[in-house]
Here is the input.
Amino acid sequence: MKEWMKLFLAIASVLGGAILSIARFINSFINGRNDWGRFNPDAADVTGILVGIALIAAGITYFWTQNRIYKG
Here is the structure.
């Protein structure tokens, strides 16, 4: 795989994960199950947030492995 494609996928992963996590967090905050403004997520919101965090971690891992400190 070409280097520019790896870089593009890493950036897309970080941005997509951030957007997904923020959107699900806002959804669970605005649509609080008991009162408006209370953070009360359901299973779909929690799953979306965790998938977003995993995408962010995958993108950051790519950038970390390309770092000079990691390679030694």
Q: What stands out?
A: Residues 3-71 form one domain. The CA atoms of residues 17 and 54 lie 7 Å apart. The two ends are 24 Å apart (CA to CA).
